[in-house]
Amino acid sequence: MKVLVTGGAGVVGKALCRELQARGVCVRVLTLPGDTGVELLPQGVEVCFGDVTDYASIRPAFDGVDCVFHLAAILLSREASAFERINAGGTRNVVSACHDAGVRRLLYVSSISVTYPVLTPYGKSKLEGEECVKGSGLDWTIVRPSLVIGDGGGVEFRMFADFVCKFPVYPLPGGGKALKRPVRSVDLVKGIVAAGLAPETLRKTYALAGPEVMTMAEMARRILRAAGKRHLMVPLPWWCAKRLAVLRNWIGGRCVSAEQALAGFLYDAAPSIENAQKDLDYCPEKAL
Predict the structure, then answer these.
(1) Gyration radius (Cα) of the chain, Å
(2) Which pLDDT tens digit goes with each residue over 167-222?
(3) Using an 8 Å Cβ cutoff, are 129 and 110 in contact?
């Protein structure tokens, strides 16, 4: 069996390649031209270069594969149009390439943020990607990772950890009451592979999260305890947080909008993993 992993030179992508190879799968990666991450790919992985926003550049990579794991996406940007162009538009191109190359099986890595009551531009783009995949006529499976921790991944978690460790007194919008279910990257990768290879997962959507639900305030306390710090949390009322655009700079700098920075504090992301446990033999360990 041969699979194509789009975005395969990223942190999660490289781990996914290793897991697929461990299961005896031949792996081809599609990544951007000039991506230095290819130097760290496991030995034996075939590399193709292309941009998911440019159909002609990616089309050859789909020839001769049995399944596509579509990871390529942008997570952080202050330009809403970038999410639409790369995440939604790129997924449409991937679906078209699957059809044209005769590839039937597609695993799409979405995001738990598509379940937020109010979508950020990122969440909207991932939901559009889901709708495209579901209407593709392909044998699809969708996974929705929650907050990822470990193995060099988890951009959002690292920004949050840096934030609470940086300031002796740190504000948490809403008092950090939003519920999260963080997942170890190693468990996430195993869940993605199982979802993409198992026949019983066709036309199903799975949340991939950790076993433990916690508030953001509790997550901050655990981060500080592990770092040996005793910083003080100050609850920040929502009306105040929404007016403080500087929160964006405290957390994510110029790479994230104030809207996206606040969304993680405002909305719960603690989905049930019962279906993944039943169908994928998914048994994640505590992330913190």
Answers:
(1) 19
(2) 899 989 889 999 999 999 999 999 999 999 999 999 999 999 999 999 999 999 99
(3) yes
CB-based contacts of 124, cutoff 8 Å, min separation 6: 83, 84
- Interhelix angle 121-134/258-266, rounded to 10 degrees, is 80
pLDDT digits (tens, 9 = 90+) for 130-179: 999 999 999 999 999 999 998 756 888 988 898 899 889 998 988 999 99
Question: Which architecture characterizes domain 2-148+184-210+272-280 according to CATH?
Answer: 3-Layer(aba) Sandwich (3.40)
- 3-state secondary structure (DSSP) of residue 40: helix
Residues 179/269, Cβ–Cβ less than 8 Å: yes
Query: How far is 242 from 262, CA to CA, in rounded Å?
Result: 8
Query: 200's torsion region: left (phi>0), alpha (psi -120 to 50) or beta?
Result: alpha
Q: Which two tokens stand for residue 256?
A: 């994230």
Q: Which residues contact 22 (CB under 8 A, 6 or more apart)?
A: none
Q: Where are the alpha helices (DSSP H) in 9-136?
A: 11-22, 55-58, 80-83, 89-101, 121-134
Task: Map out the domains of the chain as residue ranges.
Answer: 2-148+184-210+272-280
